[in-house]
Amino acid sequence: MTVVKTPFQNNHIALRDFMRSCPELTTGRALTQFACIYYPIAMLELELLENASEEFDTIENAMLELIYAGLKSIEQISEVMGLPLNYTQKLMTILEGYGHIENGELTELGRRSVAEGIKYTKYTTRQLVQADSIHGVLLSREFNQSNHSLFQPDETTGSFQHVLPNPFLSAEAFQRLMSETMNYKRVNKRIFHVNIERIQSIISQSFRFAHAFLVSLEGLPHPIVLLKHVTYSQETRSATHTWRPIALSHSNAKALGAAAAAYEIVEDEAMASLLATKSEIEKQQQVLSQKYNFTAKWTEGLQKQLGLKGELIPYAKAGHQVSIDLHMSVFAKVTRTTFLLLQQLADPKAMPHVGFAKYDYLSGVVARATTSDPQLQQLASKLFQLQNNGSRNYEQLIHEITNHSPTEQRWDKLVSAIL
Asked: Mean pLDDT throughout 217-240?
């Protein structure tokens, strides 16, 4: 039976997506925290006021024109049109239902319909939407989370932080949404049909939790939340899943300048829950570091995740950032992760290792490889010169060593192939 891994278990994929798709945010800014979190998604059923237009029925149009000309009583209209009185009354009721007549007078919508000869109507409709209740915005279609990616509170894992306290849309946020309905009809939002005039009310709301990641970048005052994002291709009729920021705070946008233009910008006040979550993650790590032997857990992680002889590796920890000092003798086995570590030695901009962050006692930890070993530095430089040249030999080398070489011979074979 195949075990499907959760996004938390594959958290490196989310970071890879973020760095590849958002270089304007990540270039030149060190990653200082990368934590797995559960993020609340509000599930709203909205009542909307919608406009519609169609060709007029001849009799309805004639009746509106008579009222526009000054006829008020049903009897007069019935007589002029040569229609039975009860039928004329029914027509009047229908026109009132369209919003064309009120208290025997033409409404603005009725006058517009007469002037243009088009039956304009307004009616209420309902629509289910998802909202980011923390930032106070509706989620675009691309950020809508599928049903199987949303969880009741009791279906989540308690070892990961849940962004709280209020997962529901506040009254203030709803009032803002009502005043900004037009924004959600634009092409880049794609939430409401162009005929929607405004949000009337929230009929019902509930919430679910989604997998997400809390990211802190050097030089930005507020953390960023990454949520699963889907891009649809009309040509291939396929969907591409990536992890992207839901929104940026005003202060983050100010620090980023023009690089923030493509993102949703929200008030700094909306960051309170995220800052509280970040603080809770730090407290959790401190408590669990005292409960567990951090050095032993760290060494175990180095061995299991990175294939290193963890007890031989010096490390330095500052907050959520840990640097590990590698040398030639610490590599116990070679996997694809080994090549990522070597890439960090050759390229300071390379993606750090965030695999430890999926454990509660190392939540948010970002690990970077360093070395003072000249031979290892030379190996890393030559290996990734091969990669940067776009040579197929690089992928062939990885495939050959990780799939067709005995485990105990892989490191020696890699060294001899490169040096």
From this structure: 86
End-to-end CA distance of the chain: 42
The residue from 217, 251, 282 where one domain ends is 282
Written as one letter, the residue type at 10 is N
In angstroms, rounded to a whole number, what is the distance separating the alpha carbons of residues 211 and 162? 10
339-380: pLDDT as tens digits: 888 888 888 778 888 888 877 777 888 888 889 899 999 988
Residues 142 and 237 in one domain: yes
Same domain flag for 30 and 166: yes
Residues 261 and 305 both lie in one domain: no
Rounded CA Rg of the chain = 31
Same domain, 174 and 105: no
Lowest mean pLDDT among 95-109, 167-181, 380-394: 167-181
226 near 213, Cβ under 8 Å? yes
163 and 265 part of one domain: yes
* Nearest in space to 139 (alpha carbons), one of 147, 128, 155: 128
Structural domain span for residue 74: 57-116
DSSP calls for 202-254: EEEEEEEEEEEEEEEETT-SS-EEEEEEEEEETTTTEEEEEEEES-EEHHHHH
- In eight-state DSSP terms, residue 22 is -
pLDDT in tens, 139-192: 988 899 999 999 998 898 878 899 975 656 667 777 777 777 777 776 566 788
Per-residue pLDDT at 1: 41
DSSP class per residue in 7-19: TTTTHHHHHHHHH
Number of domains in the chain: 3
Tell me the sheet residues that pair with 122.
51
**DSSP letters spanning 250-278:** HHHHHHHGGGGTTS-EE-GGGGHHHHHHH
Q: Where are the alpha helices (DSSP H) in 123-217?
A: 171-179
Q: For residues 186 and 270, state if they share a domain.
A: yes
* Distance between CA atoms of residues 54 and 175, nearest Å: 31
